[in-house]
């Protein structure tokens, strides 16, 4: 390892990292000896390369003259504090209690700082504030002189390599794909990513780069996570428990690498670990409890100051001291309840410690040194990560084809079901018939067969010659829809209706044919008796409105056909119809409009809208759930880039689903479209974008599938009912009408109906209002999404 060549311009550490005290002590330990013995087994070359290149102060950020890395100018000329936290206060929204309460911490540049503390004391909170994932409620954080989150700080971004406690990687990617994605996000060219991937995987003993992350063991997964963090060789490395579940030898290798990175690469490392003794290798240890830093110093000085043999003892001593201080404070202020009072400052916890012999120049913390804040990193986050995100989204789809299958199969099923179920007239509706006029059929209860029972019209139609008219009437009833069943009496027929065996009962009175003939022959001179006895009585089951109306309409049409049939059969004037109204060819639509055509525009709009919404919410939540999104954001991807990459992918899926919907409905089921197809497609496309924007909003608000499902279903039903898809908006309750028109699907449905049913184009207000309303809703959803993201960022 001695053959490491420092790059030109790199300065070797002189103060904090060169003290050697902690390592000296450690080498004397058993673990130290094991490490020394095993050090020969290390891949010296890999370590050398990794550590040498980790220096943020190199002119190009590359190693050994490699100029392919991101353009990283020198950070600062003099060694100072890389991270300074002062008087930090932090609490979480909706959670009582303060997590950080006047927390101070100073991490010297080019050193390892180990932050120790019990579970839940706030370590992860501190780290997430350092990397810019969360914001403090009060106090300041400076990393390389700049507050994280400011535009030129490179934080979140390549300035910091952050390994979160959770895996925060997508299990469906291979190891190589994972590193490739994060390498691209950091702005590394592909060949550099490849080269570094090979070395890191070899060093970290990750079995194969083609293995899916989810198929690795927990320890291997954490090493992949560490590799992601170190890949772009950031000047500041933040590691939240990187050695959990890692083999002791490899754990030591990792520490060796970190030590070399700090000493030879001037990298600053902050690490949390549960292995307290392991932390003794760090240059500085910070002991944290209940949101404050109890002590912060070199390990040997902490041991000396508190006269302890182990760090565990130091921690115990400090914790007891803090506890005593809390009890005293409570006694002094007995009314204080709730959160335990803590000393005014972390220094207070140190004050009553036995005074160690410490030379002031040895003190690592240099918080008040103004030169610290002059140390300006000039990392520019100017690379566009949209392509990296796009590649990630497509790879995700390749590994996880369910959304794509969903986008293809669901519209086929939905449109197929729509075409085969909605709007088709019911058939085989049973009608109970009682014919007291004449026996039409050979046997009671037989089906109507042709014109059996009707002898035909005589040459000369008179009241005497016209016979068996009831049979002709039954013959003309639409037998595709209605099936007739004969009953011997009206009470029996009504009983069948009451029992749900027939939808209606129909009665021909005795001598119906004779009296009907009289009605036709005598016209206005017909007697009341003739008029009364030439009427058919009908009793309906109207419990099903649609079937009831259809049966009524069918019977009325049969009567009209029958009347015309008699007039034609008897060579009478056919214009003497009972109703003197002539229904002409309609201006728009057909004489017998179909319910399917009415529903079609709403069906298309709803399908495209909700498909886009579902797929968007599904893919974003998956990314959020894996923690991949949070990690991408920490690595420097912006929210806009995440959204842009999703918009592109979702648009492709949306176009596929839209084409399937239109082909199924217009070509397969031949539903009516009188208008220009271009405007139909344009409106569908906009509606898809609108669904996608609502999807963005929902996935911003929700962290779990369950919450998103509730929101999605909650939006689905009101939108369906109020959009005018099932029933005209004009028929809704007056108060709901204006609400209905204002919703995203309503004007678009009406617009599509005008295009498809009336053949109108964009010039008509009824059409362009649908486009305008959809565009406005897209704007509203996108704005509230961005506002929500900002608010969440502010309060996180
Ligand atoms: N997103 C959050 N919302 C609400 N409370 C939170 C959130 N994250 C952490 N906390 C709370 O803040 C406190 C500190 O949590 P934090 O994760 O920082 O502790 P930690 O020291 O890192 O613990 P560990 O060692 O177990 O990881 C805990 O009480 C935790 O419940």
From TrEMBL:
GO terms under cellular component: ATP-binding cassette (ABC) transporter complex
InterPro entries: AAA+_ATPase, ABC2_TM, ABC2_TM_bact-type, ABC_2_transport, ABC_transporter-like_ATP-bd, ABC_transporter-like_CS, P-loop_NTPase
Keyword terms: ATP-binding, Membrane, Nucleotide-binding, Transmembrane, Transmembrane helix
Sequence intervals crossing the membrane: 600-621, 642-671, 677-698, 710-729, 766-789
Domain ABC transporter, first and last residues per copy: 83-315
Location in or out of the cell: Membrane
Residue spans of biased composition, Low complexity class: 55-70
Start and end residues of each stretch annotated as Disordered: 1-29, 52-72
Protein name from the UniProt record: ABC transporter G family member 23-like
The encoding gene: LOC113206969
């Amino acid at each position: 390892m001695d053959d490491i060549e420092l790059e030109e311009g790199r300065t070797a550490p002189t103060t904090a990292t060169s003290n050697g005290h902690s390592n000296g002590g450690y080498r004397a330990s058993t673990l130290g000896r094991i490490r020394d013995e095993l050090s020969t087994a290390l891949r010296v070359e890999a370590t050398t390369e990794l550590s040498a290149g980790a220096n943020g102060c190199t002119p190009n950020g590359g190693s050994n003259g490699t100029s392919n890395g991101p353009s990283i100018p020198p950070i600062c000329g003099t060694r100072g504090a890389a991270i300074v936290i002062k008087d930090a206060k932090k609490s979480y929204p909706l959670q009582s209690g303060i997590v950080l309460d006047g927390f101070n911490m100073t991490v010297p540049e080019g050193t390892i700082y180990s932050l120790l503390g019990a579970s839940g004391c706030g370590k992860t909170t501190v780290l997430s504030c350092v990397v810019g994932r969360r914001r403090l409620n009060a106090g300041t954080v400076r990393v390389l002189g700049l507050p994280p989150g400011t535009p030129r700080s490179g934080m979140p971004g390549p300035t910091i390599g952050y390994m979160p406690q959770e895996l925060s990687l997508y299990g469906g990617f291979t190891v190589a794909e994972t590193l490739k994605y994060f390498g691209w996000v950091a702005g590394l060219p592909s060949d550099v990513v490849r080269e570094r991937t090979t070395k890191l995987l070899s060093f970290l003993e990750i079995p194969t780069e083609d293995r899916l992350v989810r198929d690795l063991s927990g320890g291997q997964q954490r090493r992949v996570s560490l590799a992601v963090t170190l890949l772009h060789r950031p000047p500041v490395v933040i590691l939240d428990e990187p050695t959990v579940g890692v083999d002791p030898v490899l754990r030591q290798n990792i520490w060796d690498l970190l030590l070399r990175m700090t000493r030879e690469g001037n990298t600053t490392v902050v690490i949390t670990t549960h292995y307290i003794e392991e932390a003794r290798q760090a240059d500085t240890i910070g002991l944290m409890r209940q949101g404050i830093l109890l002590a912060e110093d070199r390990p040997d000085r902490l041991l000396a100051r508190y006269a302890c043999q182990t760090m565990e003892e130091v921690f115990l001593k400090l914790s007891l001291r803090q506890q005593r201080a809390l009890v005293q404070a409570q006694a002094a202020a007995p009314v204080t309840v709730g959160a335990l009072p803590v000393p005014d400052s972390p220094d207070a916890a140190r004050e009553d410690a036995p005074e160690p012999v410490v030379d002031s120049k040895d003190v690592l913390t240099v918080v008040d040194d103004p030169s610290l804040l002059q140390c300006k990193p000039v990392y520019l986050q100017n690379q566009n990560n949209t392509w990296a995100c796009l590649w990630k989204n497509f790879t995700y789809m390749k590994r996880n084809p369910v959304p794509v299958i969903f986008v293809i199969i669901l519209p086929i099923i939905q449109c197929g079901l729509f075409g085969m179920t909605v709007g088709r007239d019911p058939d085989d509706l049973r009608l109970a018939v009682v014919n007291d006029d004449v026996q039409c059929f050979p046997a009671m209860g037989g089906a109507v067969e042709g014109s059996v029972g009707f002898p035909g019209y005589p040459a000369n139609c008179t009241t005497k010659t016209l016979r068996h008219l009831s049979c002709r009437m039954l013959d003309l009833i639409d037998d595709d829809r209605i099936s007739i069943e004969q009953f011997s009496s009206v009470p029996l027929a009504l009983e069948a209706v009451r029992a749900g065996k027939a939808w209606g009962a129909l009665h021909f009175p005795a001598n119906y044919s004779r009296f009907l003939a009289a009605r036709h022959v005598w016209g206005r001179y017909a007697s009341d008796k003739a008029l009364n006895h030439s009427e058919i009585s009908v009793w309906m089951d109207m419990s099903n409105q649609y079937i009831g109306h259809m049966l009524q309409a069918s019977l009325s049409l049969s009567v009209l056909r029958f009347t015309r049939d008699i007039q034609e059969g008897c060579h009478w004037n056919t214009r003497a119809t009972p109703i003197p109204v002539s229904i002409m060819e309609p201006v728009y639509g057909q004489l017998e409009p179909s319910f399917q055509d009415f529903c079609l525009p709403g069906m298309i709009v709803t399908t495209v809208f909700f498909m886009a919404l579902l797929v968007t919410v599904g893919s974003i939540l998956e990314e959020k759930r894996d923690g991949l999104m949070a990690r991408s954001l920490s690595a420097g991807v912006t929210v806009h880039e995440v959204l842009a990459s999703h918009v592109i992918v979702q648009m492709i899926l949306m176009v596929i689903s839209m084409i399937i919907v239109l082909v199924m409905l217009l070509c397969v089921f031949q539903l009516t479209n009188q208008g220009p197809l271009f405007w139909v497609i344009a409106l569908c496309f906009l509606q898809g974008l609108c669904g996608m924007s609502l999807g963005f909003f929902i996935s911003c608000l929700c962290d779990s599938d369950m919450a998103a499902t509730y929101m999605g279903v909650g939006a689905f039903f009101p939108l369906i009912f109020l959009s005018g898809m099932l029933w005209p908006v004009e028929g809704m309750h007056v108060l709901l009408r204006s609400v209905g028109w204002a919703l995203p699907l309503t004007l678009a449905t009406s617009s599509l109906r005008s295009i498809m049913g009336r053949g109108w184009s964009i010039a008509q207000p009824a059409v362009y209002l649908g486009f305008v309303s959809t565009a406005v809703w897209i704007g509203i959803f996108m704005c509230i999404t961005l506002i929500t993201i900002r608010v969440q960022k502010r309060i996180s």
